[in-house]
Amino acid sequence: MLTISQTFVVLVIFLLIVQFLKLRKACQQFPPGPTPLPLLGNLVQMNFQLRRDLLMELAKTYGNIYTLWFGWAPVIILNGFQAVKDGMTTHPDDVSGRMVSPFFRAVAKGKGILLATGRSWKQQRRFGIMTLRSLGMGKKGLEYRVQEEASHLVEFFVSLKGRPVDPSFPLFHSISNVICALVFGYHFSDEDKTFHELISATENLFRFAGSFIYQLYEIFPWLMCRLPGPHKKALSCYDVLSSFARKEIRRHVERGMPDEPQDFIDFYLAEIEKSKDEDKPKYDEDNLVCVINDLFLGGSETSSTTLYWGLLYMVVNPDIQEKVQKELDAVLGPSQLICYEDRRKLPYTNAVVHEIQRFSNIVFVGMPRVCVRNTELLGFPVKKGTIVLPNIASVLYDPEQWETPREFNPGHFLDKEGNFKNREAFLPFSAGHRVCLGEHLARTELFIFFANLLRAFTFRLPEGVTKINTEPILGGTLQPHPYKVCAIPR
Ligand code: HEM
């Protein structure tokens, strides 16, 4: 006779075997991939981490479309430029859903743009794009705001007189002020206490998104939401952003609608008013709060982190920095306002800005999508609800597309005569119907900020510092290790 504990062990083993066989059968419905284990899927093989090199390595065995199981969730990975491009653009609407994971649901509750899916996402996104255009995106109006913030940043570095500084905060401050001016109608001073709280909440959220606890939350949400830990802090950080957004909405309501809407909140409140008598109004305060958070989170951390990498690359490649400066000096006057259009006369500078984005690969492996209907991906039938990950890192580092994918090489974007050359595999903003909504703004910011900074200063390591770490730290975005530079006026 078996004891109770022996019976229990036999039962568990039996259930695991049944689960294993079921999984093997389920695997047949997906593109090939490493064999998953019951409960854990492929997490053990992945060392409980999403690593870009491992994802690219697996493609050598299983091909450019394969399946990985994150616990009990199968995820189809698209690897390399061709697979990502075809997967995202052949049936773009079919793969336009967002994976609303437990953590995403806990913060945004399916509202807003970035973490929403289906009809609501479509409406909020369409309205978001239209409104940003009305506020000057893609036109001179917005470019002027970018120029203004870039010149504040130059003044800040001038005030340091070459003393060493970690440029992370000043870059974040200036970049996020562009989006704050658009959304809230004003920008923050660098001593503003509320602004510091918002930055610290944003940093915490991005750091959490790269942590092991985050992975645990996504796999065992029912357990994690009952336990204390960093996930509680991350949730409260999202609340800090939401409370601020609500306070700003209240301020706008109390101030009353001006004759012409002045900022994003004015436009959105007008839309709420217009649609309030509809059966199911599409625009409401909860959606507005999440859209504000999406624009603030999406529009601050990304461009500023790219520039943070950019200054680091200039410090470790002084010859490239010098070549950019020579080109800027030859084409621009010392106090001429730099426009986005100037990139056409500055092919080398433009190539360097593109290479900074390619090489830093800040969005790491990109954001997961979900199929909104049964579809086909690169010849494989895929069911509605399946998660798809277009691996952006594998595109930006694709050895078939880039001559020296693992080297910082502005030549990737130049032809033999030194003219700027667009590259199809340059997809840092992803592709298809969910392509980054702020792409144009981000490109304008990166070019104008970078050109202004390099025209005014030479960036160098502080005296006595000879080594600098260029490996990324994994978070919601790939960040450089903190570093200090001296901005030496030219
Ligand atoms: C260097 C800068 C940036 C990079 C590399 C970047 C990259 C990305 C990527 C990869 C996505 C996911 C697309 C997908 O689902 O496949 C995305 C989405 C998004 N980005 Fe950006 N982004 C940048 C700047 C910005 C800026 C400045 C804004 C603000 C205006 C912004 C707002 C958004 C929003 C709202 C989404 C969600 C779009 C959707 O789900 O429909 N981003 N971005």
Automatic annotation (TrEMBL):
Annotated binding of heme, by residue: C436
An example Gene Ontology biological process: xenobiotic metabolic process
The entry's keywords: Heme, Iron, Membrane, Metal-binding, Monooxygenase, Oxidoreductase
Subcellular location: Membrane
MF-aspect GO terms: heme binding; iron ion binding; oxidoreductase activity, acting on paired donors, with incorporation or reduction of molecular oxygen, reduced flavin or flavoprotein as one donor, and incorporation of one atom of oxygen
Pfam families tied to this protein: p450 (PF00067)
Cofactor(s) it depends on: heme
Domain of life: Eukaryota
InterPro entries: Cyt_P450, Cyt_P450_CS, Cyt_P450_E_grp-I, Cyt_P450_E_grp-I_CYP2D-like, Cyt_P450_sf, Cytochrome_P450_fam2
A GO-annotated cellular component: membrane
Ion transport keyword on record: no
Membership in a protein family: Belongs to the cytochrome P450 family.
This protein's name: Cytochrome P450 2J6-like
Organism in which the protein naturally occurs: Anser cygnoides
